[in-house]
Amino acid sequence: MPLSVGSSPVAAHGAPGARATCGTRLGGCPSPLRGKERPSGGWLRAGGFPHPRLDGTAAGSGGATASRPAAHRSRGLSVERPLLVGWRRACRVARSLLAGIPAQPGFCNAALATDLLRCDQPAWRRGCGRPVYPPQEESPLNAQPHPILVTGGHRTGTTWVGKMLAASGEAAYISEPLNIWHRPGVLRAPTRYWYTYICPDNEDEYLPALQEMLDFRYHLWDEIRSLRSMKDALRMARDWSTFWRGHRYSKRPLLKDPFAVFSIPWFIQRLGCQVVVTLRHPAAFVSSLKRLGWPFKFADLLNQPLLLRDRLSAYRSEMETIPADDIVAQGSLLWKMIYHCVAEDRQRWGEIQLVRHEDLSLAPLEGFRALYQSLGLHFSPKVERAVCDSSGAENPAEISPRSAHSVRVNSRANLDHWKRRLSTDEIERVRQITGEIAAEFYPASTWK
Q1: Which residues have CB under 8 Å from 351's CB, separation 6+?
Q2: pTM of the complete model beyond 0.85
């Protein structure tokens, strides 16, 4: 029925006045004005009476009459002034997080409402995952933006390179999912060995979990059940934030994982990764391991039959006979095996980016600018500042063992520490063990 419009309760600036007390009488009895006109100063409500400022009706008593607008199809709300639904969005986010699936705005099940899905929408809006390519086939160049894998031997600068590549904000930095101590919220699949090898013969154990990770699906309940300290809780907050921003802003996954180096072919073929391999002088690599007191147990490699079959069969006897307390020999042999496999991979996939730690240390801006261009990232002034802050002369000349994963160091001053830390005999042993493999990457002049 027609409803008369009373005087406007809105001030000159358009905001409603103080809340009225005439909606009900004392004792809870309805006011005689209810259902006839808008109470003076009442709250604006969806589907309520016409408002002279918002609904285009005239103000003043005795003005034109208006009919209640048509109800909204969802909850009887006015189309012109729908009720805020932020709480509904929050509930959807909470349910999605508890289920381990990122909240997707406007998400609907394709099996239930296929007619609502539009093919011109990006894949994450349609509820589709990142493409998985069939074995032995390289990913098409026109697919989704490729994930980035930064790998190489540990202590070769993978953390520095990975964080600098993520400094532009275009990529979401995920640290070491194949680390045997990785968080279950990041990757559901357990890894039992350092330098876990993934190939078509064992991919069923890892592919679904890695696919969920590349789709930024954070497993909140799994992470909560594993919490043991405040440090774990802070790490959970950091990882969840990374995954949420990566999904919300459609960022490229950037995996920094030295322990994926033997699995480079699989990451290229099955996940379509663009690969960056960091390389460091073998003597500097061994020197870093010696300073930190990090031995390497080759049982982690010997207990992987597929890795021995495909990549390391020629080194079995050396791994079995190496002394358990000889860090120099262990580091040298590990370096030789890693970069022997990297050299083989580069012969097959020429697009693998190989960056020497020494080159980046001497000219960080030029090196990272070229790396950004090759990966299709934007080298902005923000990135330039991050690179300068991480490598400038104001940083310490050497990283403290307590901060082994810090990326702030005077990159130029850090180059020659190995010459003072290793004895002449140790340097010669490293050179003999690494042999021809080292000669492919470092000329004889670099050993002096």
Answers
A1: 274, 275
A2: no
